[in-house]
Amino acid sequence: MQSEADPWEPATLAVVGTGYVGLTTGACLASLGHDVTCADIDAGKIERLRNGEIPIVEAGLDEVVGAAVAAGRLRFVTGAAAGTAAADIVFLCVPTPQDEDGSADLSYIEAAIHEIAPVLKPGAIVVNKSTVPVGSTRVVERALERTDVSVVSNPEFLREGTAVFDFLHPDRVVIGGADETAAKTVARLYAPLDTEILITDAASAETIKYAANGFLAMKISFVNAVAAMCEAVGADVAHVVEGIGSDHRIGRAFLQPGPGWGGSCFPKDSRALVSIAADHGYDFSMMRGVIEVNDQQRVRMIEKISRAAGRDLVGDRPLDGMTVGALGLTFKAGTDDLRESPSLAILDQLERAGAIVTAYDPTTAGELDHVQRDRLGSMRLATSAVAAAADADVVVILTEWQEFSCLDLDAIAATMRGSAIVDTRNILDPAAVRAAGLVYDGVGRS
Ligand code: UDX
Q1: Mutate to test the pocket of ligand 1, among 332, 341, 401 (most ligand atoms within 8 A of CB)
Q2: Rounded mean pLDDT of the chain?
Q3: pTM over 0.85
Q4: Does residue 354 come out as left (phi exceeding 0), alpha (psi in the -120 to 50 range) or beta?
Q5: Which of 140, 207, 241, 367 has the fewest beta carbons closer than 10 A?
Q6: Which whole number is the average pLDDT over 226-242?
């Protein structure tokens, strides 16, 4: 194993799990020069990867995977054990979904540990990249039952849709563990990235991950609450965001109002933060407030959409016969991920109240895979924004896809039954909407 003084050399690595974190991590580490074997329990997925199919929408991932495979530095195998026996360092990038009580389900981690413990080389290092509750590095150490193997935490800060860029241009790399030599060995893997590397203890590294996501979710809930206030006092949230974001202590990022945050991370991690704190005797009431504002934001959007169509939400099916043209289903633009999408939550509630929804999203306009079909149920899908707007009393923009910022508003107005557009992402120019004879409502834009 390399020491700090040695010249930088590529390492032999394994990555367990080939989701957007695992596949991005494996491919990008290979692009840095390391020799990487990516393993997954799903033989079908591995077969598709071997055939050059990338199962997830991630900008630049095709190219990074293709180049690494062509250079002979990246390969795919089925089963964690097959991929890890020769590795000096093994990255765990398996899911840590949410249990009902908000705690993280570590069963995938435990299954991976059980499989790799017998085959790991003496002196190997296991790296926890999955988002795991504080204290999990110790859990992995105990589960491994190997005194000749070290475990470190190396949380990821990858955003879906920009994971490759985020991996290759990190603001920092965080590594935590009791074995400082192991932590420094893992740190050296990232040396070509020329970024700040923070080496700390495992609990701090695990807490950094949750605190980072909690803070980002808080910023978004804060601006959504400010947007509600702007509507009440007649202010423009875009100007307020510019006025506070220009303060370097606040910053402009993650201050874009919307229908609330979603995805596979913020909802899970914000609840886990509250749960982990409570398990250790602290009531993280601020984080509960951040979650509450986010839940309320969806209700506010439903009220906004109903009001725009001249309806109120009284009675058991108050929106009977109301037609909605929905633009955007994914939890944000740039990804095909529908998990915990605010759009789906809002549209589901509208349908439960009697509305008839027709939706268009660039990622669901074609043939749906089984995951998408499962999540979309019986929702009526259109193949274009204008088709989704046909006979709609109200059109609502729920995901900030670029194509929605330059809609043919005259065609939309001509095909609608009503004349209201609710823009939950503030991506349209209200004056252009009005010029097309439509009524505009955004979020925090009086
Ligand atoms: C997030 C974190 O950003 C990333 O660092 C972590 O590793 C994983 O979780 P991700 O969930 O992929 O990444 O997406 P992100 O871009 O953070 O957006 C999360 C949600 O917040 C989305 O629903 C998005 O629409 C919403 N959002 C984001 C806003 O509503 N306003 C903003 O200004 C930014």
Answers
A1: 332
A2: 94
A3: yes
A4: left
A5: 367
A6: 98
Residue nearest to atom 22 of ligand 1 (CA): 261
> Where in 328-390 does DSSP place strands (E)?
356-360, 380-381
What separation in Å is there between the alpha carbon of 211 and the centre of ligand 1?
A: 14
The alpha carbon of 201 is separated from its chain's Cα centroid by a whole number of angstroms, namely 26
86-103 confidence digits (pLDDT tens): 999 999 999 888 777 767
In the prediction, which pLDDT does 11 show?
A: 97
DSSP state of 268: H
| DSSP class per residue in 192-230 | GG--EEEEE-HHHHHHHHHHHHHHHHHHHHHHHHHHHHH
- Averaged pLDDT for residues 359-363: 96
Does the beta carbon of 328 lie inside 6 Å of ligand 1? no
Average pLDDT of span 138-151: 92
The answer to whether the CB of 332 is under 6 A from ligand 1 is yes
110 CB-near residues (< 8 Å, 6+ apart):
143
In terms of DSSP H, where are the helices of 381-429?
A: 385-389, 409-415
Sequence-ordered strand ranges (E) for 209-304? none
- Give 297 Cα–ligand 1 centroid separation in angstroms: 16
Give the mutation target among 254, 344, 361, 401 for probing the ligand 1 site: most ligand atoms within 8 A of CB.
254
Pairing verdict, β 172-176 and 196-200? parallel
Q: From the candidates 38, 93, 230, 265, give the one annotated as an active-site residue.
A: 265
Residue 20 pLDDT exceeds 70: yes
Is there a catalytic annotation at residue 265?
A: yes
Domains and CATH numbers, the chain: 12-199 (3.40.50.720), 201-446 (3.40.50.720)
Share of the chain above pLDDT 90, in %: 85
Range 409-425 average pLDDT: 98
The closest-lying atom of ligand 1 relative to the alpha carbon of residue 331 is: 23
Query: pLDDT tens digits, residue range 49-80?
Result: 999 999 888 999 999 999 999 999 999 999 99
Which among 219, 175, 169 has a CA at the least distance from the CA of 200?
175
The pLDDT of residue 2 is 56
CB of 20 closer than 6 angstroms to any ligand 1 atom: no
Ligand 1: atom nearest CA of 335 is: 12
DSSP 110-174: HHHHHHHTTTPPTT-EEEE-S---TTHHHHHHHHHT-TT-EEEE----PPTTSHHHHHHS-SEEE
